């Protein structure tokens, strides 16, 4: 059974930075694309960033390009999201996500969506 556990959320002022981390377990981590999605109050969950199974390819939502960076460490079974220049509109619950099929690209996962989810971590950006 796939388990995803996020950490690193919190409250930050606009312009600040946060780093989210996700620890994965339950299967061979290095075969699967991973990603981050977010859900703001009263809105649907949306894709933020995804990364290939080997870390060689990434894909970002336009709203976070140039500010957020996704990375992974297959030796530690972790995926991270470095968030810089945060804006109040980045306020949301952030979910770590895992693809259900092996060897898919970051873009494929961004379009298709995820099969496994973490419990979410709150990020609040004050103005």
Folded structure, characterized:
With 127 residues, this protein is mainly beta. 6% of the residues lie in helices and 52% in strands. A hairpin with a 4-residue loop joins β7 and β8. It is globular, with a radius of gyration of 13 Å. The model has no long low-confidence stretch (mean pLDDT 96).
List keywords for this structure.
1 helix; seven-stranded mixed beta sheet; 127 residues; mainly beta
Write the layout of secondary structure elements.
Elements: E1 3-7, E2 10-13, E3 18-25, E4 32-39, E5 45-51, E6 58-60, E7 68-73, E8 78-83, E9 92-102, H1 106-112, E10 116-117, E11 121-126
* Helix content percent band: under 10%
The global form is: globular
Number of discrete helical segments: 1
Give the strand content: over 45%
- Quaternary state of this entry equals single chain
Order of helices and strands: EEEEEEEEEHEE
Low-confidence residue ranges? none
Q: Quote the distance from N terminus to C terminus.
A: 40 Å
- Helix-strand makeup class: mainly beta
Number of strands: 11
Give Rg in angstroms.
13 Å
TL;DR?
The chain has one helix at 106-112, and strands at 3-7, 10-13, 18-25, 32-39, 45-51, 58-60, 68-73, 78-83, 92-102, 116-117, 121-126.
């Amino acid at each position: 059974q796939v388990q995803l556990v996020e950490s690193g959320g919190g409250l930050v002022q606009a312009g600040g930075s946060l780093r989210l981390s996700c620890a994965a377990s339950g299967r061979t981590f290095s075969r699967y694309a991973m990603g981050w999605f977010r859900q703001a109050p009263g809105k649907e969950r949306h894709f933020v960033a995804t990364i290939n199974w080997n870390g060689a390819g990434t894909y970002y939502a336009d709203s976070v390009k140039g500010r957020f960076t996704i990375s992974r460490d297959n030796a530690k079974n972790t995926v991270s999201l470095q968030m810089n220049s945060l804006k109040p509109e980045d306020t949301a619950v952030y979910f770590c996500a895992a693809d259900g099929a092996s060897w898919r690209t970051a873009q494929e996962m961004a379009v298709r969506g995820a099969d496994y989810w973490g419990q979410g971590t709150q990020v609040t950006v004050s103005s």
